[in-house]
Write a structure and sequence with these properties.
CATH architecture: 3-Layer(aba) Sandwich
Distance between the termini: 44 Å
Strand order of the largest sheet: 2-3-1-4-5
Number of domains: 1
Radius of gyration: 19 Å
Structural class: alpha/beta
Number of helices: 14
CATH class: Alpha Beta
């Protein structure tokens, strides 16, 4: 990040923190999953005049990496309530603030923290073929420098050892971070049902919308309609739908490896059926 951008962000964060009491808190969160189209959905929803994104950047990561900061720091990222009041008068509907931090779904404490701070919040979760997600995550972390093992198959073999005890460490030391838990969980993050089941007692299924990202990209208007209905927001026209933050894989996954990983995920994909209201698209 260049010096000028750092200075602008620093001033913006300071201003946000000083005016936090006059700012909104989010009414919904895009909570995950990583590499499942969260950025594309975020960009689409941001085009709705009554869905207000954070002032600085897409993901605030308060409930996973920055929960040690005061709530005023988090609230300082969102639009002013006076601006929301102007929009309410113009459109006749109260705007909703939101953010997108795809690590929230996987972090063992994020759900509890969200429920404590935002007791009425709604969550949106996107899921995709977990084999594709794992490959995409590996390419993503490799490109960002958070992964040093270039061989995907070997990185998957390392996962259990890298993540051993991570949940316990994060729960025992709530202000800590675990590098591999955040950056090397290629299979674990694709076991979506485990993570969703952790959210259910905190929010109930009625406040968690789970979307199949394959269907989102195939029929974006239909998915967009579902999201607005879930949020109780008026339809003010369709946004421009584009894919964002995609990353091509360095090489095709061998069929034998793909089948082995698909077999691993089969039971977890089956557990997704009640959340999706039907079989995942990649299992059809």
């Amino acid at each position: 990040m260049n010096t000028m951008k750092q200075s602008v962000l620093s001033v913006s964060r300071t201003t946000g923190r000083l005016t936090a009491g006059a700012r909104m808190l989010p009414s919904f969160l895009i909570a995950g999953a990583q590499r499942c189209g969260t950025t594309s959905l975020y960009r689409a929803l941001s085009q709705h005049p009554l869905l207000l994104k954070p002032v600085l950047h897409k993901g605030v990561h308060y409930f996973d990496a920055d929960y040690g900061r005061p709530l005023s720091w988090y609230q300082g990222h969102f639009p002013l309530r006076v601006a929301a009041a102007l929009l309410t008068r113009r459109h006749g509907t109260r705007p909703l603030a939101f953010e997108s931090s795809p690590y929230y779904l996987f972090h063992p404490l994020a759900g509890e923290r969200i429920a404590a701070v935002l007791p009425e919040v709604k969550l949106i979760v996107l899921v995709r073929d977990p084999v594709e997600r794992a490959c995409s995550a590996h390419a993503h972390e490799l490109a960002r420098g958070y992964e040093t093992e270039s061989n995907f198959e070997y990185a998957v073999e390392l996962e259990a050892r890298r993540l051993a005890g991570a949940d316990q460490i994060l729960r025992a030391r709530p202000d800590s971070e675990h590098h591999s838990h955040r950056h090397h969980a290629y299979l674990a993050r694709g076991r979506y049902a485990e993570q969703l089941d952790r959210l259910e007692p905190l929010f109930g299924r009625e406040r968690v919308l789970v979307l199949d990202s394959h269907r989102f990209f195939a029929e974006p208007e239909r998915t967009y309609d579902r999201v607005l209905e879930f949020l109780g927001m008026p339809h003010l026209g369709y946004p421009v739908f584009e894919r964002h933050n995609g990353r091509p894989l360095p090489k095709p996954l061998p069929d034998a490896v793909r089948q082995r990983l698909s077999d691993h995920f089969e039971v977890y994909d089956t557990q997704l059926v009640p959340w999706l209201g039907g079989e995942p698209s990649w299992r059809r």
